[in-house]
Every structure is written in structure tokens, then in C-alpha cells.
Design goal:
The protein has 108 residues and is α+β, with helices and mostly antiparallel strands. Helix content is 32%, strand content 24%. The protein has four helices and six strands; from the N terminus they run E-E-H-H-E-E-E-E-H-H. Helix 3 packs across helix 4. It is globular and about 55 Å long.
Length: 108
Amino acid sequence: MAGPWIVTTRGPLLNPPRLRHNPVVMKTTNAPLSYIETEIRSYLPTGWDLIGNPEGTWDPKKNVWRAQVIDGVDFDWPLVVDAGDAGKLGRLEALRQAFDRLVRERLG
């Protein structure tokens, strides 16, 4: 038997449905960029925390999403994700890169 198949309790499923995401849907929405607290915390370094609104805020004038994070030494830092980056890279990759920039700035 050639090709992909999924084994079930009753036997193999010979033509499984293709599972994939549709990035076009994300790019055509008019909703502002947003993140849930769990997504943001998944990229926080150990000892860092969110302050203020834990889900961040959307700035329609500058077309960016912002949140405030506090590092392990109690300095607060702005976390900024540009909507253009999120459109090109994807929401979570843009958030990851924003955290990378913030940590590099923090460490000097």
C-alpha cells in the first residue's frame, strides 16, 4: 500500500484529509493585531513579567501593538510589534523577533 495513511482502531484510512493553515485569512482581516497573555508569556525570559495590561494594547496611529515588560532587575521595557512585520512574518514570529530585539537591547 503506497502513500500516506492513518491507522485507526478500525483499520487504515487510505486518503486522509490534508491539514494545513490558510495564511491568506490572517492577512485579509481588518482586526487590529493582538496577542493573548499566554502567547506573550511563552516568550518571556525567566524572571521577567508583564506589567499594565497583560494582553497589550493596539496603537492605531502608529499601527503597532505594545506591551510593557519588567525584567529581573525591575526595569520596565516597551515591547513593540509592527503590524507590517506580523503580516510578512506571521503573528507569533513577529512577537518572537520583537522579544529578541528587546532582550538584545536590554543586555547591551
